[in-house]
Amino acid sequence: MQSVRRPVRSTISKVSNYSEKHEDRAAEIAARLSDLCLKADLRVAVAESLTGGKIANQLAAAPDSGSWFAGGIVAYSSDVKHTVLEVPAGPVISQVAVETMARSVARLMGADIAIAASGAGGPGSQEGQDPGTTWIAALVGDEISSEIHHFEGEPIDILAQTEDRSLTLVADLLEKHLQNRNDEAGEAD
pTM of the predicted model, to two decimals? Predict the structure, then answer.
């Protein structure tokens, strides 16, 4: 019997220029984060849901990532968030969820810094949240910052915006943390 070769049809949508812009920016921010972590001897971990590993991908591709990137957990399913990352019962697209995810992944991986993201990537709603509704959190030391966003676009665009904003949040928080630490050291002299 002779086999028939058929062309493979791709179901992956083409990435828009909009998404590419956010991906490029995320790579730049990951490189900045790498520099900061190397100078301060800090480790980063990530807990992701809707981004499905995209944030970890950017961190792993950044310079010298083996020296500062501890790893990540992709907790796409709600039950994984509840059991592995200890998110309390209730909605997983929430401030409580992402802050718990960040604290848990930092503890699990022995990291000083953590990023967490959870949301409705679309095309449909989730937990009554419109597509594009995304919560992100960044943990640096004992300080945690979280934000809600309502991104627009196709699912791939929402993921790229979430990735970009998550990395920006953690890099900005880390820069602030390091500046405060330097200011305190200067006052002690």
Answer: 0.89
